[in-house]
Amino acid sequence: MAPDNLDYGAAMRHALGPEPWCVDDVSVGPDGIEIRGWAIPPDGEPGNALFLIDGERFPQVTYPTHRPDIERLFWYLPNAGMTGFSCKAPLTGRKRDLLDPYVLTFADRRSGRAVNPLHDYFYYDRRDDAYAFPPPANRRRVHGAEVESAFRLEGYTTFQKLRRILRERFGRDYTDFRTILDWGCGCGRMTRYFHWLAKTRVTGIDIDAGNIGWCRANLKFGNFVPVSMHPPTLLRDGHFDLLIGISIFTHLLERDTRDWLEELRRISAPGAVLLMTIHSDATAARSNLPEALWRQWKDTGFADAGANPDLESEMSVQDYYRNTFFTHDYVRENWSRYFEIVDIVPGYVGNHQDLVIMRRPAR
Fold first, then answer.
1. In this structure, how many other beta carbons lie within 10 angstroms of the beta carbon of residue 31?
2. Whether 244 contacts 182, CB under 8 Å
3. Fewer beta carbons under 10 A from the terminal one: N or C of the chain?
4. What is the DSSP string of 70-121?
5. Contact 156, 123 (CB under 8 A)
6. pTM of the entire predicted model
7. Per residue in 176-232, pLDDT tens?
8. What span, in angstroms and rounded, lies between the C-alpha atoms of 137 and 324?
9. Distance separating alpha carbons of residues 105 and 120, to the nearest angstrom
């Protein structure tokens, strides 16, 4: 937590953590791979920035270029507008499949190490995708934008990042779980990558019946179930041993959060692992929250920043689907009534949402 005596801009910079980056787009053609996006340079010096693919430098880099949108976003950082990049590299050797991705890293040239090792991206050769890809309108309700490559990259990177957490924290892989729940699966942005789990039962649930219908028609390996905005669901007691919720608690008010935590406890098996994201410091630092709301959030542990419009085209959710923020202290104090809080990893998913790692006690 930032010291109380910091002014608002300094508090935002403190909350931001290590200099972030974002890959907006990936394209692959006969000449290789190109990635485009923005990156805040280490210690504010563009010469310190280094872009890597599988630990090797991109041979062609254009950086920095002007990004007025990033300048507005990070108004409290000097020269934040000069952060755009484009990097190109040939893709030689064998084709990378789903479980053997390319790793994209933003590094500090002085050390050669990642600025933030939690912020790698993962990419694989998608030409052999076995399943259809959702239309733009379906993607927009999940991702907030229609860009296909960004949707693919974010879903696949999240799939790999959660796999990394399971290995590091529990010594387990997806294959070690009998039943997986993707709560808020949307149109399968991440769920689609579970198709290789031959012995694991995968279930996706969502309040967006249109996207559930698309998953049922196109992702035949899974079981997809529409649910109402408020629990209970019709899912069985104690059924799931891995439960994932990406960008769900980020949109719920306190009363709805409590209701869904109770429901997740009901449907989770003893010893189950839960991986859930929240908006906290890293998201707040790039959200331009009004200072009064920021201060209120830090004082109380929870803040409602208003309605999120992404689902308005599908259903009336203005009073339900919000943009909400939690502090770590709030989560540890309140969510521990339902689950053991194993850890909270800052800015992990989407390089800004915090990952709350929980476990249901075995008894």
1. 11
2. yes
3. C
4. HHHHTTTSTTTTEEEEEEEE---SSPP-TTS-EEEEEEETTT-SBS-GGG-E
5. yes
6. 0.94
7. 999 999 999 999 999 999 999 989 999 999 999 999 999 999 999 999 999 999 999
8. 24
9. 5
